[in-house]
Write a structure and sequence with these properties.
Blueprint: E1 2-8, H1 12-21, E2 28-31, E3 48-49, H2 60-79, E4 83-84, E5 88-92, H3 98-111, E6 117-120, H4 121-127, E7 137-141, E8 145-147, H5 149-162, E9 166-168, E10 173-179, E11 182-187, E12 190-199, H6 205-212, E13 219-229, E14 240-243, E15 253-256, E16 262-265, E17 269-270, H7 281-294, E18 303-314, E19 320-323, E20 330-334, H8 340-359, H9 382-391, E21 398-400, E22 405-406, H10 407-415, H11 423-430, H12 443-454
Parallel strand pairs: 1-2, 1-12, 2-9, 5-14, 12-20
Antiparallel strand pairs: 3-8, 4-8, 5-7, 6-7, 10-11, 11-12, 13-16, 13-17, 13-18, 15-16, 19-20, 21-22
Helix pairs in contact: 1-5, 1-8, 2-8, 10-11, 10-12
């Protein structure tokens, strides 16, 4: 199959690049090795839109963070995904730490972050009454935010698809070779040819880059573990609460989510495996202990689940973004760790522009910028919900009681562009199974709907990738 551009990787960055490329008159494909987009780092992170004060001034991380954060509000309205500018706070716990807090404030101003303010302990507690007693001072950033990473990534993918990008899931790139007129990609589903390749493969981005370039990259996967609280914990903090950054990043945070939960984490453990995302008792204990240093009386009895994700840390410390020096037409978005989610919209614009100029692609006149998400019937005003159910009775049949998700929403998640083909695919689109019982009640019914809509037997249905069947024997 021949394309002008092939994007490798269906995470937040890959889908942002694909969406921006869909503005141009070029044939574009996105290849993703998993059964769905948003199946790697983008599905298991802090869901934070960072303000931009942490990254070193002059770094790619700093530049793309500030730009991406500024884009998020308008993008969330355009593509209809959840985003809220709740502000963020960095805590200082001793007089000895004050110089580091002041330096962070100075760096944020140099990076172009707006509205930064140093707070005394008393001022910080007025904003966040549940801060721990040991807090001495804080840095407040009103532009910090929270986002739904699933909603954002899927929205970008659906809009890209609507504008002509072709998505190929369950398609793992195993080898890339340079040809005179572009690149040949060998995959688990055949061979693709492309004039230009964009590498947004997360923890595997170095492997693909090193196939075509003598300037080698080295990505070190870092595993981060989290605990998620029930919505009963809503309001315990309003802003995202960080600790002063250390050698391994921004430390353990405490934050609300856009869906009303409370989230704490992550750890930062370097590992060789690019697939291992198991949680550990030691890791989760560390998360709980460190979160308690920032915020008092955390309701640990209301933790409903834990999870871990991997960050793609490149040993050079900064993002690798742009055309490879010795591989013309091969563009990298590699080493995208925190604040990568915040940077994704800006990285998408930047790389799509580079590729379009390299290929002399013209802008489309019929690009459709807006996308509407799946209606959540339970959140509608009574009259609107009544009209919807009259038109679509399946919107009145509740499947997931915890999150009040109807059969109609699950059906739409399956039937939409790049529709769900796994239980996790449904979960990420409409939150069925994300509530207090974690799918204990609603999973069998969701499986019945998925089997009916796709024509796949119950025995063949998977939680996510192939082999994760829910029924055996």
């Amino acid at each position: 199959m021949n394309y002008d551009v092939v994007v490798i990787g269906g995470g937040a960055v890959g889908c942002a690049i694909a969406r921006e490329l869909s503005r141009y008159q070029c044939r574009t494909a996105l290849l993703e090795k998993e059964e769905d987009v948003c199946s790697g780092t983008s599905k298991a992170n802090s869901a934070i839109v960072h303000a931009g004060y942490d990254a070193e001034t002059g770094s790619k991380k700093a530049a793309f963070n500030v730009k991406g954060s500024a884009m998020m509000g308008a993008l969330s309205k355009e593509l209809d995904f959840a985003f809220r500018q709740n502000g963020s706070m960095v805590l200082c716990f001793s007089e000895d730490e004050l110089p580091a807090l002041y330096a962070l404030h100075k760096r944020g101003n140099a990076n172009g972050v707006l509205g930064l303010k140093l707070l005394s302990a008393e001022e910080a507690r007025k904003l966040e009454p549940n801060l721990a007693e040991g807090v001495k001072a804080a840095l407040y950033a009103p532009t910090g935010g929270i986002v739904c990473p699933f909603g954002m990534t899927i929205a970008l993918a659906e809009n890209a698809c609507r504008n002509g990008v072709e998505f190929f899931l369950n398609t793992e790139v195993t080898y890339i070779e340079k040809e005179k007129a572009g690149y040949v990609l060998t995959t688990s589903r055949g061979r693709w040819k492309a004039a230009y390749v964009v590498n947004a493969a997360g923890v595997y981005a170095d492997t693909l880059h090193n196939m075509v370039s003598e300037r080698k990259l080295h990505i070190i996967p870092k595993r981060g573990e989290y605990c998620l609280f029930d919505k009963e914990a809503k309001g315990h903090v309003r802003a995202t609460v960080f600790q002063l950054p250390g050698a391994y990043g921004k430390g353990v945070l405490v934050t609300p989510t856009v869906h009303g939960n409370l989230l704490i984490g992550p750890t930062a453990v370097e590992q060789e495996s690019r697939e291992q995302t198991a949680t550990t008792a030691a890791g989760l204990n560390e998360v709980c202990k460190k979160a308690g240093r920032s915020v008092r009386q955390l309701p640990f009895g209301q933790v409903i689940t834990s999870f871990a994700g991997l960050r793609a840390h490149e040993e050079g410390g900064d993002f690798i973004i742009g055309e490879a020096e010795d591989a013309p037409g091969f563009f990298d978005a590699a080493g995208i760790e925190s604040p990568g989610l915040s940077c994704a919209p800006a990285i998408g614009c930047y790389l799509a522009d580079l590729v379009a100029r390299k290929g002399n692609f013209e802008k489309k006149r019929d690009f459709e910028a807006e996308r509407k998400g799946i209606v959540h019937a339970a959140a509608l005003p009574a009259e609107e919900r009544k009209k919807l159910i009259a038109k679509r009775p399946d919107y009145g049949a509740i499947v997931c009681r915890c999150e009040e998700i109807s059969e109609g929403e699950i059906v739409d998640a399956i039937r939409r562009p790049i529709g769900a083909r796994s239980l996790d695919g449904i979960k990420r689109r409409v939150r069925q199974g994300m509530g207090r019982c974690q799918g204990g009640f609603c999973t069998p019914r969701a499986m019945e709907i998925l089997a009916r809509e796709t024509g796949v037997s119950m025995e063949e249905l998977c939680k996510n990738r192939g082999g994760s069947n829910l029924i055996w024997g």
